[in-house]
Amino acid sequence: GAEATVDALEPPHVRGLNDDQRAAVLAPVGATRVLAGPGSGKTHVLIGRVAHLIHELKTPPREILCITFTNKAARELRERLRDKIGDAAAREITAGTFHSVAARMLRRHGDRIPGIGRTGEFTIYDADDSKQIVQGVLVNKFGETKKTAQPGPMRNWISTSKSCVKHSVGLNGSHMLRALLDAHKPIPPMSHERFVECYDEYELGLRQANAFDFDDLLSATVAMLEMCPDVRSYYEHRWSQVLVDEFQDTSTTQYELIRKLSQPQGSVFVVGDADQAIYGWRGAEVANIRTQFDEDFKDVQT
Ligand SMILES: Nc1ncnc2c1ncn2[C@@H]1O[C@H](COP(=O)(O)OP(=O)(O)O)[C@@H](O)[C@H]1O
Ligand SMILES: [Mg+2]
């Protein structure tokens, strides 16, 4: 019938979508947030949106940035993009995790951050490397023995404190303790003083090793965009369209990074899990982010 004819004329990235998916893929350029259940086709919509940007709105693929959370999700995203828009275009798109995208930006421009004390050849410390540094601090500064030192909790507090602030560059241990407490993160009062000292020693250790930990990758990138207007202007032009999958998992620092990358034009398209956004373990933060998103990006399409 008539409907079948209309369907056949539709571009491939719109064909077969339900009404909600279609509305999201075709939403006007601006700030768009899609919340839907797990397995409902959110990543499918994000990929359809990329195809729409390229084929209908003539966005050069190299101006598109797609961010997700895990390496596995990033790999899957790149594969699905390739299937949808072809190998050549997919290769021009920047698609990766928050950490991989941030690391690339820092390798290129990170030495411009005032007082950062790292070169472009910095080392990336994973959770185990970080724990080693904390272990060293506990043994060398606090007289613990290698056997009894328990670096795990302290490392986690340091990491959590860094995800509670927009960026941690230039902030000392007492500031970070306040950030933890303000965010209602559990840290026993008897550990407050030690946290402050450990934090500062830990930062010194990283700096001396020309290293960033995982949290710093995000933090330093946010600081870079804040403190270096020319670098920020470069990335605003570099990526005119920012898309984020699994938005419900976004931390304060990650959100800040998205916000900085997608301004001033505010072209940002985020998809996330509606259920987790309400009941998830980071529910409070997500609620914050949802409200914040409405404030930061005018004319949000939901
Ligand atoms: N409108 C659609 N047409 C065809 N396949 C779809 C559609 N919506 C979702 N899918 C498929 O359903 C599966 C789950 O979708 P996905 O985008 O991964 O969900 P989510 O990201 O919400 O968990 C995928 O295999 C995807 O290709
Ligand atoms: Mg998905």
UniProtKB/TrEMBL annotation:
Nucleotide-binding among the record's keywords?
A: yes
Query: What SUPFAM superfamilies does this protein's entry cite?
Result: P-loop containing nucleoside triphosphate hydrolases
Query: Which residues bind ATP per the record?
Result: 36-43
Origin: domain of life: Eukaryota
Cite the UvrD-like helicase ATP-binding domain residue spans from the record: 15-302
Q: Name one GO molecular function term.
A: ATP binding
Keyword terms, alphabetized: ATP-binding, DNA-binding, Helicase, Hydrolase, Nucleotide-binding
GO biological process, any: recombinational repair
GO CC, alphabetical: nucleus
This chain belongs to the protein called UvrD-like helicase ATP-binding domain-containing protein
